[in-house]
Amino acid sequence: MWYIRYGRSVRFPPVVAGKNSDCRGSFEILRGKGCGLASKRKRGGFYLVTGFRAWAKLCAITAALGFLVWFCRPALSASPQEAQNPAPPNPGQSVAPANAPGAAETSVPAKADPSAAPSHEPDKSSPPAEINVRQPNIHTRPIMVNVDMVVIGVTVTDPYDRIVTGLDKDNFEIFDEKVSQKILTFSTEDSPISVGMIFDSSGSMADKIEKSKEAALQFFKTSNPEDEFMLIDFNERPDLISAFTSKFDKLQDRLLFVKSGGKTALLDALYLGLNQMKKAHSSRKALLVISDGGDNHSRYTENEVKRAVRESDVQIYSVAVLEPLASRNRTPEEAAGPGLLSDLSEVSGGRMFSVEDASELPDIAEKISIELRNEYVIGYKPSNMVRDGRWRRIRVKLDPPRGLPPLQVYNRTGYYAPTQ
Known about the structure:
Blueprint lengths: L1 E5 L7 H4 L9 E5 L6 E5 L2 E6 L1 H20 L1 H5 L2 H5 L65 E8 L14 E5 L2 E3 L1 E5 L5 E8 L8 H13 L6 E7 L3 E8 L2 H8 L10 H11 L7 E8 L10 H10 L3 E7 L10 H4 L1 H12 L3 E4 L5 H12 L3 E5 L10 E8 L9 E3 L3 E3 L4
Parallel strand pairs: 9-10, 9-12, 12-13, 13-14
Antiparallel strand pairs: 1-2, 1-4, 3-4, 5-15, 5-17, 6-7, 6-16, 8-15, 10-11, 16-18
């Protein structure tokens, strides 16, 4: 046995280092008894007792551990996420199988037997074929639709204010800014229509409100199943009682609870009605106004409402409920009311009816309903396609068949050209 002590000099016996060899180092090998590893305290120092074979085994184990750490260095340096989710190979780059060189095992594929029958099963060892599907782009260019069409409703009456029907396309001629236009569409069928009723419940309608309700209900009864209606009640401010609906029974129930009182905000009610008509579902639109015509409590001015009427595609039919001439005692605003309703109706292509006897209101409402359903709907494409936003006047010239009396034509007086 040999004792190894940490010291100044080491003298190796001949069996270890050769004869008379001397090495200045940090260990001293001393011969002694015992085997294995032990520690011994002497004179304040520590002695390490070991045998030569145990020392050799220790060196071999240390070298093996060092080689193992060096070999496993890539795996130890990888993060846990990379170890769980390895990065996919690049396209076109071959991937080594698990038994490729550098792995734990390496196997050599066996040669195919030429005498064996051909197999129809796909080769699982080869990568699947790459298929590229080319999908063409859809709607790479926007679809352009030309909608520059002007559509107007035309009403024709005889000298007795009766509706004239049965006219043809050749009996009409359209002028846009005094330039004759070619008629592209012509229709006389009773198409669905959206009607908004503006009902006056101000204090000046106190003695006429019941007959006005009867007129409104009579108008609803003469409607078609596909028509829709909207109801606005107003006195000092407008109130949307019902949005568009095809069930006039609901409007009837709500109209029965309307009571008169307060001032008259006619212009505000008209402005609200024009905005609500933008939500209509039918292409034909009309407003029916039942009022005595006086306005004394509106925020909107007459010019603002007239411009809104010109910009819309809504016809306005008005029923001016007036007092008998002998008993009229009206303010200047109330006296100017019928003229205001007449101007708005004329610009929009509708008509105004003046009624002094409230008992005539239901008949007038039925007449308006019949007139709306017997219009000539004419469409044309303007020859002037300049988008300048200017007001363009329309005139409809009638060439009636021979034998008919002079006829009266009602239509929109113009429209605003588009700006874009």
